[in-house]
């Protein structure tokens, strides 16, 4: 079985984190950084599709406008990755 990897946003950058390291652990280890859980970042091709469709995903997986923010306060991947 393929092991699921964890993604986190660390100071706005998507990082792949070992599955055994939780968000809480990382927040405790690096209290000076802003660390949030997120889903896997999209590919460039996916983001191009989002921009042309006018619909994107927020870092927590919600549907948002390409430059929008989801109801939970998360930016779209396109804004987070500095694509717009
Ligand atoms: Zn959300």
How do you describe this structure in short?
With 84 residues, this protein is α+β, with helices and mostly antiparallel strands. It contains three helices and five strands.
Explained architecture:
The longest helix has 10 residues, at 44-53. This protein has 2 domains: 1-38, no CATH class; 41-84, no CATH class. It is 25% helix and 21% strand. The mean pLDDT is 91. It has a 3-stranded antiparallel sheet with strand order 2-1-3, with helices on one face. A two-stranded antiparallel sheet has the order 4-5. With 84 residues, it is of the alpha+beta class. It contains 3 helices and 5 strands; from the N terminus they run ββαβαββα. Zinc ion binds at residues 58, 60, 62, 70-72, 74. Zinc ion (ZN) binds at residues 58, 60, 62, 70-72, 74.
| Computed CA radius of gyration, to the nearest angstrom | 13 Å
Proportion of β residues? 15-25%
Integer count of domains: 2
Low-confidence blocks of residues: none
Q: Helical residue percent?
A: 25-40%
With strands numbered from the N-terminus, the spatial order across the biggest sheet is 2-1-3
Unique bound compounds: zinc ion
Mean pLDDT: 91
The sequence of SSEs as H and E is: EEHEHEEH
Largest sheet: 3 strands, antiparallel
How many DSSP-defined strands? Answer: 5
Number of helices: 3
The general outline is elongated
Given helix and strand content, the structural type is alpha+beta
Taking the alpha carbons of the first and last residues, their distance comes to 37 Å
């Amino acid at each position: 079985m393929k092991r699921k990897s964890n993604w986190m946003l660390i100071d706005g950058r998507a990082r792949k984190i070992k599955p055994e390291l939780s968000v809480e652990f990382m927040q405790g280890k690096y209290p000076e950084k802003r660390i949030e859980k997120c889903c896997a970042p999209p590919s460039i091709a996916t983001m191009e599709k989002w921009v042309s469709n006018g619909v994107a995903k927020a870092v927590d997986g919600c549907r948002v406008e390409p430059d929008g923010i989801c109801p939970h306060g998360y930016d779209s991947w396109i804004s987070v990755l500095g694509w717009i």
